[in-house]
Each structure stands twice: as structure tokens, then as C-alpha cells.
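Subject: mismatched residue count in predicted assembly?

I count 943 residues in my input, but I want to confirm that the predicted structure covers every chain. Input:
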Amino acid sequence: LEKDVLRSARPRARLGALALAAVPLVGVVELALHVKQTTVDVVPDSDWLDARDMVKAEAKPDDLVIFAPFWADPLGRRSFGDEVAGIKREARPDESRFARAFEVGIRGAHREELEGWKLVSTKQVGKIAISLYENPSPAKLHTDVLDLVGPESMTVTSSGPNGAEAPCPWQRGQGQPGGLGVPQGPAVPGDKFVCPSGGYVGAAVLHALDHHPHLCIFAVPPGPGGAVKMKFANVTFGNSLHGHSGVQWVNERTPSGERIQVAFSAFDRPIGQNAHRVGVGWTGFEFPTPELAGKKGDLVAEVSGSGPRAYCFEADTRDVAP
Amino acid sequence: VSDTIEKEKDEEETETETDPPSEPEKKPEKTKEEKKDDKPDFATRARAWIKENPDPFIGGGLAAVYVLWLLATARSLGFSRDEGFYFSAAGDYKRWFQMLVDSPSRAIERGPIDSIWANNHEHPSLMKSFFAISHMVFHDKWKIFEDDSTAFRFPGMMMMGLAIWVTYMFATKAYSRRAGVVAAIALGLMPRVFYHAHLACFDVPIMAMWATCIYVYWRSEKEGGLGWALTAGLVYGLTLETKHNAWMLPAVFLPHALVVHGQAISRHAARSSRIPVPTSLVAMATIGPAVFLLLWPWLWNDTLPRIQEYVNFHVHHEYYNIEFLGRTYFGPPSPKSYMPVMILATVPTITLLLFAVGAFDRVRALVERAAIALGEARGRRLAWPKVTPERDRTQTDLLVFLAIAVALGPFLLPRTPIFGGTKHWITAYPFIAIVAGRGFDLVWTQLEQLIANRTALDARKRFLAQGIVVLLSFGGALATTIHSHPFGLSVYVPFAGGTAGGADLGLNRQFWGFTTESLAPWLAENAKSGESFYFMDTAWPSWVRLIEEKRIPPTLRGVGSPADAELSIVHHEQHMNEVDYNIWTEYGKDAPAYVLTHDGVPIISLYKRSGPKPGFRSPRR
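Triage response: the counts match. Full output below for your records.
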């Protein structure tokens, strides 16, 4: 029996001995991987510039340009520049408005935002893959209220609990984009409507709960019973009013019962109201407006809440497929 | 009481020793004159002593090489946030030390103590005092270091030297000289350790003191005697004075002492109704706190409230943001997988594999010993193990595993903050390296057998072959460590995909804002004289030092907000995206003028304001 045990143990022991002796090879593989990762795997700047030239030649103004993985975004923005990868594209509310998307990807990465889109073509530029996708159901935009922010097409008033409205004049000044500590809170833009209650209305980029950027209109409600009212002039309506809302990530990450409402109306008739609950992150809303489709007029957005929270929203009028 | 333990130990040793010591041959006594003539001179005796005791010198050599490497690379590593605060504190403490020399009676008055030592009193004084004294001596007086920062950092580097030395000594004395060399190499070739070893901070110092304290305690258990025990007390005091991790050391010593002395304690307690305590533990419990109080002038007044404040600061420390697997954590519960995943992703895989080999061997030995002890207690031997393992009165393996477990264990608890990345459990690394050294011993034994089957190895060839195997094993770790500089916190091991792999996995890219200095070449070429520069996560004192030492163009004007800056940066961390987007709003554009990268991964984005400060314009598509 002892012999049998020894015989059966011997190959195992030999295998164990060989495995032990092979351990230094792991160090060799480690070195080989290191060399590969620090040389051939690194995407050179020239590839980024070549990719930019290719996308620039083919992209239309309404196409989305997106970089994958998300951590490569600064590299893409640096190489593609504001013209191709500007704030409107980068800090988009969502992808539904884009008919096509150029995904500029490295390391085989793919952005989940384009799941469900149709892959049309893929080209390789050095170590960068440029894939063209088509949106199966793009929305047709009529007016994006973000384009109306400013004194030419927008007026803002604020009201306290007694209902008396006070105008919030447009001011040009120095922004307050934060200091040396984090979290800083959202940047207060230099150009904004300043309300006598202390709040403001202005466009800035929100750092949302998903850590992605979203360009939106910050509107700070004056507190319980009060509201900030924004009137956007010459809005062309479609069959839907589509939008999103959120507050800065650092507030969203600690869910609370706090709610901030935005109520839309046009032609003195309500369109819909959305309540943003702090903690849900950047979320969308949509109100059907078939009765307004094709009309042109003022859109009113009224923001109210229980406290002076830096609430941010965006909205557009559009036609969506039924 | 403590002597009794020593006595019991001696009795025990006598019981176990089977070979009677051989009687030395008696030689005729020499006259006084003859003795004087025979006595070798000091140099000869020193040489002989070194030949007999080469290990402290081999360890010292390894440590010296490492410290020189740190010094050679210090200039290219920017200043972390915390370093800025410690530079400032050390600068203040320098004034006190000068006062102590010039006017000792004035220096120990409450006024000067409270005004000077209040700076950064949330951490003990030892390292900051060393930073201060090093600056006084090596910068101001002897002018060895041109940079103030190198003088401040030097004690931290020396602490890394101590860690290398102790790791070598421990592994050598516990296992073998080969294990010692490999352990020291394994510790030195951890990219994160290499980064932290440069800094005027406390993480590498506490790693060194944690290892030293355990080593001295182990030697006191091994050698016995009052000398080692008193040293253990002194070293524990210095460890307490280094960083609060020292509070956890009793969790290493007490269970170990209980296992080693358990029987003796119970025998003695049964006889005398008193519980004897090992001398080293008594020394640590008495001398340790005394040293802690004596070396920290801040505690000389209002002692108890200030100790209470110190304890409260660390017990209720705020949570900072840290990204792990794509999610930023900012409070409890901390993910249990954080520590194991980060170890796998940052400690070279060869080191972990050798650790696994060594740990398997040592755990088996521990279990075998436990089975033997159990059999003895039951009065009959168990069927396993068949071969009696080597007896280890000091339970070295147990001590080593306790040193690792106590350092790592808290990071499996949900309330332990994880914002420090790997540095908060860095105290485990010397012991992981020691076990890896043991693992290498086993690997080499197998390799040697395989080689011996094919060719004969003389001593020289054997030495050469070992060197080649060490080089093959640690070539990747060496290359990764060299390449990690000065982005030590961004780097992940090749099996985790390197720096880009870490970014793919959503692991933290950096913290402390130290990478600002790496913008220097771009700034030198592109920034205009007098331009204002928003330096984001870099602390003000760190920025001031960068400017004073001309590590970045000194013509730049540092400002605290992008609103005031022509150039603004963001250090890429997930939670700092906020800063990125705020700069977009302020500058009205999102394209950086420059992106500092490591292996193609963004570390810092630098934005340049176009024209005068316009504020944000609602952009048109």
C-alpha cells in the first residue's frame, strides 16, 4: 500500500517541483508584458491627429463624436479641438438628438451609450478604431433652450412666498469656478441672470452623479413658496418637450427626500411638471405636446423647491416618432 | 515577574537540547606579555568580526544602494499635498530646535511649545523632527543637499533604508541569507513603496518602524536578556511617535506571546497565582508610552486632553474620495475587496507568487507544529504529520503572519476608510516580502535540483545561477518600478494591464496633486512669464516649494481659482471631474492645450484661457 501511495504521489510531486521551478518565468512574462504595455500599446499623438483629420472630413455638424473609453476623453478633446469635440457634444444631455455617431476608440473599448445603434463602418487609424454608428430613431430638434440663454431671447424673474415677482437682470462678471479644495460645487458662470433673492440663472456644465458632464441651465429657487421663472422667446414647438434635470454629484450621492420641481407652460397653458428627487442623478423627462406642434411662441419654465439648491435642467422641443 | 518567563524559557531550552555541548580543549595559559603580542589590532579584529557577522553589512549595502537610488530620483518627483504641510511644520519645529540649542530654558516654556508645536499636532513629532534636524544639518549647515526638499525628505529615505535592512535581517535570520536578499529586493521593487519612499511623510517610516519593532521583539524573544527587552520598549516608543498604526502592534505581540509563553504562564500562574509577563512586553508597555510623551513637546502641556484630541482625530477621521472599480467611495461601508484587489493590482505578481509559495510552506509548518502540540496535549501522537517539523521556540512564522494579518485585517472592516490607497497597509509589505524570500528559497531548491541533474555547479556557478534566477524573477518588477517614476500612484502591475489597465478597471489614478511638477517641460516651453496658474490639488506650501526650487518656471504666478488663472489644470481623478467641468464653464471651451500622460493615460489636463476672461458663453452647436 505504501508503495502504491508513493507511486501515485511521485508524478504529483514531480509536477509540483516543476511548477515551483517555473515560478521565475512569471517574472519573465511580467517583464514582457511591461515592455508591450509601455511601448507598442501606447497610442501615439500622431494617431490621434490622423483620426481627427479623418473624422473632421466626414462628420456633419449634427453628428456626435465620442471617445472610448471615457478616460481617453481628454486625449480626444485635446486632439480634436473645440470645433469637433466642443462642449455641446461632450456635455450633451443624451444621445437621442444625434442621427449618427463617430466613436473614436482605443484598446478595443466601446461606449455603452451607443448600445442599440447600428454599426455602419469601422476604420483603423494606427491604434485607433473609428466606428460610424447610426441612431435607429433620432429625434428632430426644433429649439434647444440652452441656445437661448442670454438677454436677447430670455427673461428671468423670481418670486418669494408672497408671490410678488422681481426681475433678475442679466449681468456680465467674473465666474466662480471653485478654489483649491474638492468638492467645489458647480461653477457659477460669469454671465448670468442675478436675482434679488440671491439666486441666479445661467448655463454651466454640471458634474452629474455618473461623473459625466452635462451642459444645463442652473436655476436656484429662492426657497419654500418661492420660484424662479424663465421665459424663452421664439420657441418652435414639436410634438414633444424633452429634457433632463440634476444637481451636482456631491449632493446627489447622498440621497434625500428633497425635491425640486420644474413646471413648463406655453400659451398660458401648462405642458408638464417634473420633480427631481435628490439622489436619482441626471434623469430625463418628456411631455407630449402634439397640440403645440408647428407653433412658435414663448416657453415658460418655473423652478421651485424647498431650499436654495443649485438645480440644473435642460430642455428642447422636438419631434419624436410615435 | 518577567525574569520568571526568561527562566522558564531557559528551562524549556535545556529540555529540548539533546546534544550536550562539547568541552573545549584546554590550552596552557599564556603570560600577559604573550597575550599582548598575540592580540590583533583593531582593523584585523573588525575584519574578523565582519567576516563572522556579514549580514548587517550586506543589509546595509542593500539599504545604501536603495537610498542612493531615491536620492538620485528625488528631484524629478513633485511634492504631494501632505508633504507641503509637513515641510511647513518641520520649518516651525526647526525654530524650536534652534531655540533649544540657544536658550534651552526658554524652549521648554509653554508659550514657545504651544505656538510652534501646534502646527500639524494631529500627527506625532518624530519624523517631522527628523525632517527639521535634517534640514538644519544637511541643508543649512553642511550644505550637502542643495534642495530644501531633499533635506526634508532625507529622513524618510533613510527610513526606507532601515526597512530594507530590517527586512533583510529578519528574513536572513529566520530563513536564509538568500531569502533575506530576495526579501529586500522584493520590498524595494514595489512601485508604490518606491514612490512613498521618496516623501517627507510618515507611511514608509511607519512601515520601517513597524518592521523594526517586530524584529526587535522577535530578537528579544530569541536571544532573551534585558538589553533586547529594553530596546523593544524604546523602539515601540519610537514607533508610537512615528504614526498611529503603532496602536495596532499589541494585536501582533499579545497573541504571539500567549502562544509562545502560554504554557509557562499557566504553569507559573498555577504555582504562584500571579501571571508573569515577558520582559519585552513590560518594556513596551512602560518605556514605550514614556518615550512617546518625552519626544512630543505638544503633549508636555494639557497632556490628557491633547492625547484625547489626537486619538479622536484618527478615530473619527473624515473620509476622502477614492475611486475603486469605477466608483468613487466617500464613506462607509468600504468595499471588502478593496485591499486584496489593490494588492493584486499594485504589488508585482512575482512577489505575490513567491509569497504564496512561501506562505503555503510556512502555514503547513505552523499547522504541523499545532498538530504535534495537540497530540502531545492529548498524550498520543496524531497520524499526521509523519515527520516532526523543526521546532521553533519563538514561533517566527506565527509572528510574521500576525504582522501581516494585523496590518491588513482592518481593511476588511466596513468602517475603515480606504482613501489612502495602498499606503495605509504598507506595514504588511516587509513581511509579505520576507515570506516571498522564503518562497524563493523553495523555488531555488527545486531549480538547483533540476540543474544538478544536468550539470555540476561549483560555488561560483551556483552563485551566478542564483543571480540570474533573481534577475529573471524580478526583471519585470525592476522595469515597472523604474518606469513608474514619477507617476508611482498611477501605475498598476503588468498583469493588471499597467497604467492603462488600471484606468480600464476604474482604479484610482493618483492623489495628493504631486504630478504638477511633471508639467515643467511643457510650461518652460509654452507658458509666458508672469502668467497665472491654477494648480488645483497641489497644496499651497507644495506649490511654493516647487517655485522656490525652480522645479517649474518660477515666473509663473500661482492662483487659487481658475477664475484668476490664464492656465488651469485638473489632476485626473474621478471625483475631480468637477474641476474639469468647472474650468470648461469658466473658459468656455473643453479642449485642453496639453494633456500630461503616462503610457498614454491622462494624468493632468492643462487649459489655456483664450483672450481676456470672458466668462461662459452659451455655446452654439
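Chain A touches chain B through 81 residues (CB under 8 Å). Marking this ticket as 'not a bug'.
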